[in-house]
Amino acid sequence: MLSPALSIGSPGKLTSAASYTIFYNLLDFPVGVLPVTTVTREDEEALRSYEGHHKDFWDRLLKKALTDGVGLPVAVQCVALPWQEEQCLRLMKEVESVTRMNR
């Protein structure tokens, strides 16, 4: 999962939108999260015209949660199969090296 940080008060309202990521933790899969970039002014500008896929309550709530996020981290969640912690760490190292080169 790749996602920017949400504004204060928003995560509790959007738990169901990312609930599938919680299952990895509940099932004891190796999981790691690392920041790969930050929200830019260009991202914020693009968000202004965002209507979402379904143009429903959830899309509007997500847009509100992401508004005014310039400078907040955008992170990626890396997951591996159970008992494969080394693979998760390897993936995280690869993601980190690729994103560091592109900054």
UniProtKB/TrEMBL annotation:
Residues 3-89 form the Amidase domain. It holds the Pfam family Amidase. GO terms for molecular function: amidase activity; fatty acid amide hydrolase activity. This is Amidase domain-containing protein. SUPFAM superfamilies: Amidase signature (AS) enzymes. GO terms for biological process: fatty acid catabolic process. Signal peptide: none annotated. InterPro entries: Amidase_dom, AS_sf, Endocannabinoid_amidase.
